[in-house]
Design goal:
The protein has two domains: 2-98, PH-domain like (Roll), CATH 2.30.29; 102-153. Helix content is 47%, strand content 21%. It contains three helices and six strands. A four-stranded mixed sheet has the order 5-4-3-6, covered by helices on one side. It has a two-stranded antiparallel sheet with strand order 1-2. The longest helix is centred in the last third of the chain and has 50 residues, at 104-153. This is STXB6 protein. Keywords: Coiled coil. Residues 128-141 have a biased composition (Basic and acidic residues).
Amino acid sequence: SVTNKKPAQASITKVKQFEGSTSFVKRTQWMLEQLRQVNGIDPNRDSPEFDLLFENAFDQWVASTASEKCTFFQVLHHTCQRYLTDKKPEFINCQSKIMGGNSILHSAADSVTSAVQKASQALNERGERLGRAEEKTEELKNSAQQFAETAHKV
């Protein structure tokens, strides 16, 4: 979680979901600054297991799926780049796609940018149509007034 305190404080919280339950239980929490190493264990195999090494602790983790592990690594890497200025953790034994430019964050940002551009274009087009409709309405109003004046004279 990231707070709006200055400077920003990011933490890593380990949660567990017990079988048959829909809720999560908080297990442990560390400050992002304490993270020293992220170990994906095997870059050649999709597995949900990974290790995190903190200043004073070593912790084994298991994500729900290998895909969720990949997403977690991408978010964690991005968060470290953004909030840590001094000691950034080392990412080892991680698949190259995790640190690459095609991360889920970039894809999400591109999707949002694309959606905003499409919405903006649609609004502009709608604004142009409304402008044309207003012009047509003004023309019809003038035409109706001229017709009424002509009819009144007759």
